[in-house]
Backbone:
């Protein structure tokens, strides 16, 4: 039991830290109609990680973190420029950016015998293997991002978004990052009051349920958490939509 708790609590804490920044950012993403920006910027950050690894840097060293952040910021800056230049096709441009980054990453991993495993880690993540020693720095970064978001809002949207995604994609994987960003925002869209609190609660229950089921059934934690959040979010979305019609 104690060993299960030692694995469970860092994973749950990591999920809640991701939710702390992604729930409010996701609501803004949904309002702006650029839903797939998370996938694109996360994939670009992942490309930075893969490129640094391809160049021979230590996989979890500072050079890799710098490469991931630099790639994410460059991608975010490019998407910010295209949004101002061609806003009517911004979602299509985001999709192209995602596909390009994903395929360049595959090319860089082609000669790596562990390439498939690296790609799986980037997409699915290894949330159960989060090291508790990582969490204080992640918490500090999340607090700084949240503070700047509530202070500056849209003025620093792309920069803060790139920073949040860089931290989270290496922690829980691209699929969980996207799910945490979009599902709570979509599920609570019809709520007139307490939307942010409801989004946080949905994420907390989803992460806790997915991790618990993973421990009980010995299934991969990331996909179970994604499934739990989506099912719970779907129920909340349908309930709020029904209430809105009434």
Residues:
């Amino acid at each position: 039991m104690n060993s299960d708790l030692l694995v469970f609590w860092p994973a749950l804490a990591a999920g809640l830290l991701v939710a702390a920044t992604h729930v409010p950012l996701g609501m803004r993403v949904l309002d702006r109609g650029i839903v797939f920006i998370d996938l694109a910027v996360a994939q670009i950050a992942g490309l930075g990680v893969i490129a640094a690894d391809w160049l021979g840097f230590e996989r979890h060293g500072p050079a890799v973190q710098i490469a991931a952040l630099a790639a994410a910021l460059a991608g975010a800056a490019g998407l910010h420029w295209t949004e101002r230049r061609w806003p009517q096709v911004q979602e299509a441009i985001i999709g192209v950016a995602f596909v390009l980054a994903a395929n360049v990453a595959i090319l860089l991993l082609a000669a790596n015998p562990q390439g498939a495993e690296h790609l799986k880690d980037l997409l699915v993540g290894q949330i159960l293997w989060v090291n508790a020693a990582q969490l204080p720095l992640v918490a500090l970064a999340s607090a700084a991002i949240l503070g700047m978001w509530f202070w500056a809002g849209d003025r620093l949207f792309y920069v803060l978004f790139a920073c949040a995604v860089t931290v989270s994609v290496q922690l829980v994987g691209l699929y969980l990052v996207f799910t945490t960003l979009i599902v709570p925002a979509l599920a609570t869209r019809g709520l007139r009051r307490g939307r942010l609190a409801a989004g946080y609660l949905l994420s907390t229950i989803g992460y806790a349920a997915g991790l618990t089921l993973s421990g009980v059934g010995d299934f991969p934690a990331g996909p179970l958490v994604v499934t739990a959040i989506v099912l719970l979010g779907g129920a909340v979305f349908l309930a709020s939509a029904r209430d809105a019609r009434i």
Remarks:
- The domain at 2-245 is CATH 1.10.3470.10 (ABC transporter involved in vitamin B12 uptake, BtuC).
- Residues 2-32 form the longest helix (31 residues).
